[in-house]
């Protein structure tokens, strides 16, 4: 199912109805309306959880981060002005929470991502068998979870979430070239992992 | 162009091709560059294989379904929202990461106070000088009693923080576990009351002091275990929760 990437254009991209509905929902949440908070959660939790889980890899971290995103959203809803949809606003919040989390983990794990940046894409010597068409969704989910954090983030945002390199560069605070090279590394690693996994 | 020096053109090629087919994608190659790439791919099996695999991976990635969070995430979040709405103190509104940090801070205060008190007990009293010899026992008793009072106050404050965090979340415990927890807390509270009663009558009793601090330490450790248990249950890790419950039962 192709994803609809979050819109990055200005308010002109939003229909008046969506904007009004999102602003009203945000106001009801701010007033402490539990029903509105649940409505916001039910509407966006699935997409945000998928994004977070694929970015951080571990389900219990993803669950904690999802809670963190909604609690932070509730605290910051005052800054939501309807310039983007509520979904996009929450999406950015979730990406930033994930990046903070991954940076914290990176610091704890002795600058793992620095070494990743120097690491080239891997390609085994000799011809590789093609990625079999029988690769399942679960195989791919597992292979994505096993990617190093740097290229996993870029891959998830580009190939799974459908963002363009320009948007990823903005979100991650890197150049478009870095985004491209991380996606390339991720695809090469996935290619190796999927052919290896299914050849066993 | 050296096609094999840098393979990233293959990503551009795949994205460009998909965009032409109507799939949302970056379009990085000009028409001329795309044509040149096609010519190379027609002759190069290696690059053709990589491009085909990239397309398979992209197509699989696009087909990944959204994953729904487990129900307990909403349960915990709704509880936090409710507490916040009712104007609860910020500890009640702590996120899972904040909760762990706050519990760790409270526990650190407990341990720090305990070590400080134990250290005080192990410091030998000054031995030289007539005045010290004469006033020593009185002074030592006075300092000891002030030290004890301060240490006890710090312990109690830290334990209150842990109790507050536990109370806010104890609804997550099943009735049996909550019963075990309450029974253990009652035993420890009784020991604390008993030690305090003895210390009121005999402020210098080392045994009662020791017993009081043992009991306070046990209470802090138990509360810490309860918070860890609630956390594991919220994470949906039954094995870790079972290990903690087994510790509570001992």
List keywords for this structure.
heterodimer; A: 200 residues; mainly alpha; 70% helix; 0% strand; elongated; B: 250 residues; 78% helix; rod-shaped
Ends apart, CA distance between termini of chain A: 29 Å
Average predicted local confidence, pLDDT of chain B = 72
User: Helicity range of the residues of chain A?
Assistant: 55-70%
Shape of chain A: elongated
Largest interface comes to: A-B, 55 and 49 residues
The stretches of 5 or more residues of chain A where confidence is low (pLDDT under 50) are 8-12, 110-121
**What is the number of helices of chain B?**
9
What is the N-to-C order of secondary-structure elements of chain A (H for helix, E for strand)?
HHHHHHHHH
**Fraction of residues of chain B in helices?**
over 70%
Structural class, from secondary structure content of chain A? mainly alpha
Multimerization status = heterodimer
How far apart the termini of chain B lie comes to: 73 Å
Q: What global shape of chain B is seen?
A: rod-shaped
Q: Over all CA atoms, what is the radius of gyration of chain B?
A: 33 Å
Main β-sheet of chain B, in a few words?
none
Strand content of chain B: under 5%
Strands of chain B, count? 0
Computed structural class of chain B: mainly alpha
* Total of DSSP H or I helical runs spanning 4+ residues of chain A: 9
DSSP strand (E) fraction of chain A? under 5%
Give me the count of strands of chain A: 0
